[in-house]
Amino acid sequence: MTALLDVRGVSKRFGGVQALKDVSFRVEKGTVKALIGPNGAGKTTLFDVVSGFAAPDAGAVLFRGAPIEGAPPHRVAGLGLSRTFQHIRLFAGMTALENVMVGRHPRSRAGFLAGMLHPPWTWREEREIEDRAREALDFLAIPGLAGADATSLSYGQQRAVELARALASEPELLLLDEPAAGLNMRETVELAKLVGRIRERGITILVVEHDMGLVMNVSDEVVVLSYGEKIADAAPRAVQQDPEVVRVYLGEDGC
Amino acid sequence: MPASRLARIGLFAAAVVAVQLATQLAGKGFLLTQLTMSAYYTLVALGLSLLMGYAGQISLGHAAFFAIGGYATGLLTTVDLAARRGGGLVHALERAHVLVPRPDLYGGEALSVHPWAALAAALALAVAVAFAIGIPVLKLKGHYLAMATLGFGTIVTSVLLGTEALGAADGIGGVPPFPLAGGLAVGGGRTARIANYYVAWGLVALALLLLANLVESRVGRALRAIHGAEDAARAMGVDAGRYKLRTFVLSAALAAVGGVFLTHYNASIGPGEAGIMKSVRYVAIVAVGGMGSLWGTVATSAVLSFLSLRGTFGTLDDAVFGAVLVLVMLFSPEGILRLDGRAALAAIAGRLRRTEARP
Fewer beta carbons under 10 A from the terminal one: N or C of chain B? Predict the structure, then answer.
């Protein structure tokens, strides 16, 4: 069976820095896979390669068996791959609901002409976009924020809106870039539950995260990167006991 | 369509009618000529407002698109192909009524392109040029984009000035009226002054309605998303480059429509219409009206274009628009006339409350 996401021998160099070196791993459908590693290990670069923001120098990225490496982000998003950002990027000057409605972009089609002429089919489409966006806000338990100016919300609320926006597109694969960053302990516990609920909907998740408690709690498998190279790819327990991983995280003289 | 948008269109229509009635009651019907002309300039400003406010792109070359529209229709509707009637293409075009006979200056018969066909050709030309310019230029941002579009405007102006076939410094004159339904035509005849006023502002109302629909649509949200956080918009499936390009082309097409109709209304067009100062003027109008505020743009354009056409600013005409632009950028880059009444009222109310609260 082909994996939902298949990263094959991906390398990426920025000037003198080898950000990724021959990285390969697979994400099976319906699972939660975590991507961990010290700062500068290449986690975000890998996310950028998978989501179309950066083209790899070598290697391939297969999504549902089809190559997507080098395709622009909007096309990758259209295929059913949605992402959040390490530093929250909400659309300024738009309400939370409008932000989430943009998430429906790949699942709707009204273009310039239809937008101007506003024929009846676009009324139905607009209603559908709004309904689905409200459902996403409900799912995140923030229906009350619909009308609020998105960028004026609290940090945790902005994270929730960003997640609702990514979910509104009904992705097959959801990439979460440090979703727990800046959240307090209670919010992090909520996030773990949320990841479980997203997975119950049949959405596959690839998550970059620093919070080890969260990683061990939610993921089926963990990939560990260090200086752009994969050093482990196994179940959370096994990764925790891997001497190489321990060395990378705690240093040569650690323990 | 939401009730608020209908109400605004209604208000706009009422204002247009009120102005016409006022000029009639005051016995100053002649003012309608400049009011009609300002409607066509308003079409340019409307497209530019969409481009600047929603796509976040600046163009210092929009007057060139106006001129492309005007010159295309001016040339096509005044060209005389009677001498080439022998040719197969000319014959075929005449049979298709694309070419129509009309009396020439000396009482003979000239064979020129029908104004409706000329309109289609002018639009096609403006759209083609906008695509050709937009594809390389819209990759630029900020100052670089401003410079590139400025360069484009300069090129168009010098081509117009240097081409004998386009009348060089004199431009094109003797452009026939543009026939509409029921014997009505867009042209300078005094009898049809009132009708022409309504045709022009009706066209603005139509453009306003279409653009107001657009900005509230999926495309409008995508454009605002690009403006708000471009990489996030792309991650949500928005093809940012394509949306910017389409907006640029749409705004160029609107400018060309304005150019076509004003040329028929004035029966002429000159190279000054493509000039840099004209482009700056459109940007100034949009800046005052508030970028992306379509209603603010219409209101500002109506007033400023009219005053300018009446010669209110005298020889300082260009200086006034330049100064307006500088002042807006210095003190209120968001625009001073954002027709966001609620925010303004809330601010005033807040100030009043604070004043009352003082002992």
Answer: C
